[in-house]
Amino acid sequence: MASKVTPYKDSNLNKKKQVTQMFDNISKEYDGLNRVISFGIDVKWRNKVVDIIAKANPKTILDIATGTGDLAISLAKTKAEKIIGLDISDGMLEVGRKKIDTKNLQDRISMVIGDSENLPFDDNSFDAITVAFGVRNFETLEKGLAEIYRVLKPKGVFVILETSVPTKTPYKQGYGFYTKYILPTIGKMFSKDQSAYSYLCESASVFPFGEALNNILRKIGFINVEDKPQTFGVATIYSASKD
Q1: CA angle, residues 55, 58, 60, in degrees to nearest 5
Q2: Could you please report the per-residue DSSP string of 85-126?
Q3: For the chain, which residues score pLDDT lower than 70?
Q4: Can you list the positions of beta strands (E) in 19-64?
Q5: Rounded to an integer, what distance in angstroms lies between the CA atom of residue 53 and that of residue 1?
Q6: Helix, strand, coil percent content, the chain, rounded in steps of 5
Q7: Residue 181 DSSP code
Q8: What is the pLDDT of residues 227-241, one digit of tens each?
Q9: What is the DSSP letter of 182?
Q10: Chain segment 40-57, per-residue pLDDT in tens
Q11: Are 28 and 192 in contact (CB under 8 A)?
C-alpha cells in the first residue's frame, strides 16, 4: 500500500477531494511551473510513452489523470481514432479543452470529468491506457489500478509515467536536496497554493516505485510488467498488458 499523503494537512476532506481542490487551484499555472520544475524534460518522457503506445497501434486510448491534456494531445501522433482524457479536476480539464481547440483536435480528443477509481466505462473498452504523474494521487492505488485493468481490452497495453527516487549516489542525494528545498521554494514563489508543490514532492518521495510498483501491477493481474527508469531515476516508465 502507498503511504497516504494529502495536500492539506488541516483539511477534513478525504484525499480525493483535496487533490481535486488542489488541481483546480493551480490549473492555470500548472503547465508553466511544470516546465520550470522539470527543466522541460517531462516533454521527452511523455514522448517515450507515446512511442510505446504507438507500437501497439491502438484505435482507442484512455489517458487517466490527464490534467491539462499534455499527454492526450501528444498521443494524437498515434493512429488512434478516439482519445479520451479523464480527470477529477474540471479546472485542469478546462485548460486542456482550450489547448485541444487551438490544435483542432476536438474531433479525436475529448476531455471527461471522472474518478479514476470508478471509471465511467464498460469492461474491455480501450486498446491502450496511460497515466502520467497521476497514480500517486489515487486515494486507493490498488482500486484505481483494478479499474484500469477492468476497462483495458485483452492484449491491451497500459503505460504509467511517474516520479521515482534515484537510488545511486550522488543522484539520490541531489534529488533529495532538490525536492526538499528547491521545488517547494519555486512553488511558493510562483503558485497561489503554497501547499500544492510541497504535497507533490512529498507524495513522490513515499510512493512505491520500481519493483515495488511492478509487484502491485502483477497482483492486480497485469502481465509483461516492465519498468524503465528515466534521467538517473527521477522518473520511471512502467509498461504492462492484460492477458
Answers
A1: 155
A2: EEES-HHHHHHHHHHHHHTT-TTTEEEEE--TTS-SS-TT-E
A3: 1-3
A4: 60-64
A5: 27
A6: 50, 20, 30
A7: I
A8: 999 999 999 999 999
A9: I
A10: 899 999 999 999 999 999
A11: no
